[in-house]
Design a protein that fits this description.
23 helices, eight-stranded parallel sheet, alpha/beta, globular
Length: 670
Amino acid sequence: MVLANPSGTTAVPITSNDSWSASDSAALYGLDRWGEPYFSVSPRGHVMVQPRGERGGALDLVELVKELQGRDLTLPLLIRFDDILEDRLERLHTAFERAIAQYGYAGRYQGVFPVKCNQQRHVVEQLVETGRRWHFGLEAGSKAELLIALSLLEDPEALLICNGYKDHRYIETAILARRLGRKPVVVIEQADEVERIIAASRDLGGAPLIGIRAKLSSRSTGRWGSSVGERAKFGLSIPDLLATVEALRQADLLDDLRLLHFHIGSQINDIAVLKDALQEAGQIYGELTRLGAPMGYLDVGGGLGIDYDGSRTASAASTNYSLQNYANDVVATVRECCEPHGIAVPTLVSESGRAIASHFSVLVFDVLGAGALPGGVPEPAAGEPLILRNLRDTQAAIVANGSGGAAGREAGDTPAAAPSVERLQEAWNDALKFKDDALAAFRLGYLSLPERARAEQLTWACCQAIASQLETMPAGTAIPEELKALASALAGTYYANLSVFRSAPDTWAIDQLFPVLPIHRLEEQPTRLGSFADLTCDSDGKLARFIDRGHSKPLLELHPLRDGEPYWIGLFLAGAYQEVMGNLHNLFGSTNAVHIRLADGGSYRVDHVVRGDTNAEVLQAMEHDPAQLLERLRLASEAAIGRGSLAISDARRLMAHLKASLEQTTYLEG
């Protein structure tokens, strides 16, 4: 059936289901797959958050947003659930503990969090505090991240993995940090770093713990597959690795070589890739011990993926393995490489950032309005040109064929043939030809602007009628690509109060898929198809790819907007990388953010509130002085008052608006 929206614009036809329930929405949006165990749908159609997973406790996300708005926290709002962060960390360690017990592994697991994944202070502090019982550490890839890690890691057993490019000061800082009681491991990632480490160690009379990053020949898959292998940006080739071992031996630093590191890309989607890399790295580790290095740690890098679309496949937005599968393969493969050769198994290290941080934050934004193509059949005007009459006849024929031609037939007449794909394609070709004729006639002055408007409206009415009939076609019917595209052409645009460049930059930069869905009204069947346009003046500022069980789709099932009621959308699993990689396109700054923790009795507490950037702050970031801007506008107002073009009361109102705007967030507040 075709469902018209209140504004009279066209609507994509969706077959109605009178028995629709919240569980149908959970299946439609994949929430019952990617959401486990943290997100679900209540019978009343609200998204529920279970921050501790199966251990109990749940929050109604819609009610939570309402109460946070009562605390003057406007949308868009980033809600961080610290209990989820803790739960992810515990699940990671539990998986490795089980694997170690299952395979009789004689070593242990000791992970680190890559600070680059989410550098927010409260996030890193929470991970360090929660991870203390496992001696959980941090990984730094720059001087600034090194400073963060040095200031927070007070546990002398926690590892501080130092990756990235390193100059002399970086290396000296790591050496001195070892004397401070920290446990830094300077990972050699470029051949020229070896001499700097040797020189700094000689100057200070001490050395850091040293690691080597190997360039494996094993290839990866997925979006980051090309970032690894023999042409990778970081790591030492096997000849460089052997030369490094010899240089460290000559400098009497070989006893400080304790760690082998490798990385095969972010979001590993296929577990077979990891197994190949582990086998190669395990053999390299064994050879390093035979060359005289004491070793002790094997860092398998990052890459532990998450299932964004819930398909549990090797697609780019999913993984064909579980967290336990990952831990089992790491433990079993390394054991198989070491024990048969009499080599002591290493302490296993991973730099799992995405798998720890992705789930814990939810971005909630509001929809400001919706737009669609003009729908309906316009009333005919007297003396309409032939082009418009042709379009009317085409649209009427499509509708008549779709209804079996019942209109105007007498009882006993032979029913018209059911619509076929071939007839629909022919009708669409006719409609496009008549539309082109109308445009040509308008250009030559033979068609007025109102007549051109009716021609366009009739064309979309043809499109709507064809799309409606395609919905009734039997499953498996071969439909031409041109007709398949009609649904996208008819879809509505929902205007979102956010900037994708600020809050979800990977959707624009690398086509990353995140689960997106309404957080309420899920007990209702969504009867529209649409995509989201953000606030920026940029055609790329949109959300137009959505998860679909191992694939993606260009449109999302949505509800029609209701006058006077908000429509809230949640973007999930975006706690890793998005905040730090967001930019100030159009000077839209950071959103309001809040840290939530479950409390006794089923309630919650607000641990931290991080206010979003104000307009004044983003202006200052671009070196504009807000006070100077106001003064310039005040002078302009005085000049306008002097000319008589601006009343004093209006000038006062203008300045009040400007001052208030500087103190507000960069997003729309009504």
